[in-house]
Amino acid sequence: MAPAGRACVPERSTYRRRLGLSSALAGLLALSACTPSVIPPGQTLSIPVDSDMFTELGGNPTIAPGLTFLGGVELSSSEPLFGAFSSIRFLDDSRFLGVFDTGYWIEGEIRRDAEGRLAGVDAVKLAPLLDASGQESPSKFFVDAESLAVDGNSAFVGFEQRHRVVSYAPLSDLGKAVPSEPLAFPFDLDVLRSNGGLEALVIAEKDGPLGGALVAISEKSFDDNGNIYAAILGGPLAGEFRVRPRDGFDITDATFLPDGDLLLLERRFTIARGVGMRLRRVDGGSIRPDAVLDGEILFEANYRSQIDNMEGIDAIPEPDGSVRLIVVSDDNHSILQRNLMLEFRLSAPQS
C-alpha cells in the first residue's frame, strides 16, 4: 500500500501505450499492483525511468523573440516513489540533482538523441532526505522540499509547512547527506503561508553585486502591500525584498542567467482556466534590499500546450552565449498529471 499522501501510479505512459487506455483509466487499473520501495537511510536506489519524446509544444503560447522551444519528454517509472519534482539543478551540461516534495533526492543525467534533443534520463537514483541524526522523517510535514540550490559539495534546500532553509552535505555521498541548522532570515518565517513557502533558492554569481549570496523567494506569501516575500541571505546586500505578483501567477522556481538577470518560473491554476506556465525575466541589478521586483514576460502558455504543473527550472550556458532552459513538472503523484521535462533555448543578448 502506498504511503499516506502518495498515489501509486507506475509507468502511466507505458500503460496507455500497451492498453490503449486513457491516463486515468490506466492508472486506476495499475493502482493496486505497486508498492513503493523502502530506501534505508544512508543508501540510494537506482530506478528505471521511461520517456516519451515530443517536439511540438502545441497550443498558442506567447513566446518572446530569442526564446525557442526545443522539445520535451514525459517521464514515468515502475517505481512509485518517482514523481513530485519540485526543483532541479544541473551539475554540468547533463548531470542533475533535484528534490521531490515527498522528501526525496533525485539524481541522474539527461539523454539526447542523434539530433541533440531531449530523449530521456539515465542513471537515476533516489534517496530520502535525512534529518540531522541521519534518519528518514516519518512525516511529510517535515520534508516538504520545494527549492534547491547547489554550492560545491553541499546543497541548500528550502521547505514549506515547517518553513526553513538548511544546507545538506556531502553531495558526493547523497544517501548520507545530513542537514545543518536552519539559516537565519531577515524576516520571521511565520509570515509565510503553510502552502506558499520558499519555492525558489538561487545562488548569485560570486563576482556580481550580490557577491555569491543565496536568494530565497516565496511562492505566494504576501506582505501588507500584496507583494511576495523574498530575501538575500549573506553577501554585501543582505536583507529582504519583494516581488510584485502579476495576473494570479505564483512563483515556483527561479534561475540566474549568465548576464546576471533572474528568470522566474511561475504557475497559475484555476478550475475555470486550468493550468498555466510563465517565464518572467527580472533585471539582476534591481535585486537589493527593500526593492520591489518586476520584469518582462518571455513565455506564457495554458493547458492547450504541452505543459503541466511546472515547478523546477535551471539554466545551462552554451559556448555561443545562448542558454538552454530545462523545466520540470510536479505530477503530485496524480493519475491526472504528468512528469514533464521541457527544454528551451534563450539566445544570447544582442550587443
Q: What's the N-to-C terminus distance?
A: 58 Å
Total strands: 24
What string, H for helix and E for strand, traces the elements in order? HHEEEEEEEEEEEEEEEEEEEEEEEE
Runs with pLDDT <50, length 5+? 1-33
Mean pLDDT: 91
Describe the structure.
By secondary structure, the protein is mainly beta. The longest helix is centred in the first third of the chain and has 8 residues, at 12-19. Helix 1 (12-19) crosses helix 2. The protein contains two helices and 24 strands. It starts with 11 loop residues before the first helix and ends in a 5-residue tail after the last strand. The chain is globular and about 45 Å long. Residues 1-33 have low confidence and may be disordered. Strands 1-8-7-6-5 form a five-stranded antiparallel beta sheet, with no helix packed on it. It has helices at residues 12-19, 23-30, and strands at 45-46, 50-54, 62-63, 67-76, 85-90, 95-100, 104-112, 118-128, 145-151, 154-159, 164-169, 178-179, 198-203, 214-222, 228-233, 239-243, 250-256, 262-270, 274-282, 292-293, 296-302, 310-317, 323-329, 339-346.
